[in-house]
Amino acid sequence: MSFRTSRYIGLAVFMAPAALWLFLLIVLPHVDMFLLSIRSKGAGGALSMANYKRFFVEPIYWNTFARTATYSVLATLLTLLIAFPVAYFIAKVARGRAKGVLFLLCLLPFWVSELVRTYGWMILLRESGILSGLLVWTGLAARPIEMLYNDVAIMIGLIYSSMLFMVVPLVTVLDSLDDSLIEAAYDLGGTAPSILREIVIPHAMPGIAAGSIVVFMLTLGNYLTPTLLGGKESLWFTEQIYNQFIIRFNWEQGSAFGFLLLILSSAIVWIGLKLTGQTLAGAVQTR
Question: Would 82 be classed as within a structural domain?
Answer without folding.
Answer: yes
